[in-house]
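Board notes, transcribed. Complex of a protein with (2S)-2-hydroxybutanedioic acid.
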Amino acid sequence: NSKKMAKQPVKVLVTGAAGQIGYALVPMIARGAMLGPDQPVIIHMLDIEPAAEALNGVSMELIDAAFPLLKGVVATTDPVEACKGVNIAIMVGGFPRKEGMERKDVMSKNVSIYKAQASALEQHAAPGCKVLVVANPANTNALILKEFAPSIPEKNITCLTRLDHNRALGQISERLKVHVSDVKNVIIWGNHSSTQFPDVNHSTVKTGKGWKSVRELVSDDKWLNTEFITTVQQRGAAIIKARKLSSALSAASAACDHIHDWVLGTPKGTWVSMGVYSDGSYGIQPGLIYSFPVTCEKGNWSIVQGLKIDEFSRAKMDATARELIEEKSLAYSCLN
Ligand code: NAD
Ligand code: LMR
């Protein structure tokens, strides 16, 4: 029998699915952008009661799109039903910031959601469920989820900094007038906030003469050490200013990239940035959810080791770690 056995559907949960990122994300998942063009999916969508009707509308559109890979849809306002048997959980539910706010300004509303949903996931998700937190403050929400879902292995709880990573690739590509797929190995260190450190010291660009370092090609160190960094750090705010809404299509696309590479692996010689549980690598306090360069293989990420860190980078990596320590205590004070 030459016919290949059909793959079993993977159950993917999207919380906050009636919101703007959700609306961009679910069709990407249903088209195979997240798990591959031969992987059937069942999409679970969770939102809250005031958004129930809108959520039903998204469900109707998923039916109307007649996606070949989509084997089922569950749309619910019940976290238990939403989490039942899911293999992948993308946590987008929460409140976005508006113009003039910092991401931690949405802290008190959002961390309590992650505390509550931690137990639903812990009790009802499939064993080995991989969790990606998108809602802000993303690193701290992921940390709260981890702490209130102690039976989920810490390796399975991550947050999204791939959007920042992709933004950094985009800035280098624009500056050097090369295609974005010819730039690799930027790093986002730390928090998904304005203290993040976008680092190009190990990044390379494909040229006619092989891969060359970004530092060599962008001879303007001043641009790399100032404007490049602030542009990436402030890009979320720039989008809010322009759209009067926070980024959605790029956030959804980055969430797909994050899960895609985590499940299916990173290409040889390439790393990506993920917010993961710190094991103390690079002197970062263990137990924070901190963005590191990682490679992925067979569904597991590992932090890239042995990169040389100069003094400039060290100070920036420590500053963003300090902000995460502060956020953690702020989060606990919101929960009490
Ligand atoms: P949105 O307001 O359009 O949608 C959020 C949805 O979450 C709404 O439908 C809301 O009803 C729902 N929701 C609220 N509480 C919920 C709960 N307890 N359970 C389930 N659903 C709930 O917002 P958005 O633009 O889609 O953004 C969502 C989040 O993602 C925000 O926190 C935003 O700041 C964040 N974000 C993160 C990144 C990143 O790179 N990490 C990028 C963009 C946006
Ligand atoms: C982003 O980076 O676009 C999101 O985190 C939204 C925001 O508040 O900046």
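The longest strand covers residues 289-297. The mean pLDDT is 96.
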